[in-house]
């Protein structure tokens, strides 16, 4: 295989705006990399879809995006899509694919009480993938799980400058804390890329004794490792965000995406 040209972008993919939370740490390591950020607004929310639907939809859409943007590497910046469709995507596409894995391993290293919360979409928290991660890295811990579709809606609203319903935040924390053992929980894994957008609100409700952890730094390190030695543009340029067309949900205003280094919006 030919090495990628300096201009070949990195493609980030999520159902919505959550995957933007992965861009910051990636840009810190690879400051001039061209970025294409794709959001499947026609399919949002993924957390409410069946495994079969996502296993078909995600590889097909990523195939279209790869053809259109010719990225050097694709990042599934979505826990739901990764825990369900990563193997299907890798089988279908011939380029390096980085997935998003709930950060249970670092959470197990961080907890002092031995009780970890995993906050994700309903689809993610029911995955056998999460059972496997818990068995492998946190067998001697209590791993509580809660699926919160409201936090996805809240994160999308916050990015558009709309208010976030405080009850949604309270319900998400209570969904973990009210389970047996939950009062001792001292680490919460944000196992949906939308949720770090609401970390300040979640922290205020959970209190200062709870630490939050997500996978963004690990993803950035993995991207840097897989692209080591490749050429990059001499100077940074604003990234492109591409949205699948949805009548109910138009793309957000560009000003909401600019803080993430996005300078242009397309719809497909
Ligand atoms: N951001 C996604 C995740 O990481 C999914 C949100 C959704 O579409 O439900 O799980």
From TrEMBL:
Pfam families: Asp_Glu_race (PF01177). The keyword Transcription does not apply. It catalyses: L-glutamate = D-glutamate. It is an enzyme of class 5 (isomerase). Pathway: Cell wall biogenesis; peptidoglycan biosynthesis. The active site is at 78 (proton donor/acceptor), 192 (proton donor/acceptor). Substrate binds at residues 14-15, 46-47, 79-80, 193-194. The keyword Isomerase applies. This is Glutamate racemase. It comes from Sphingopyxis indica. The lineage of its organism: Bacteria, Pseudomonadati, Pseudomonadota, Alphaproteobacteria, Sphingomonadales.
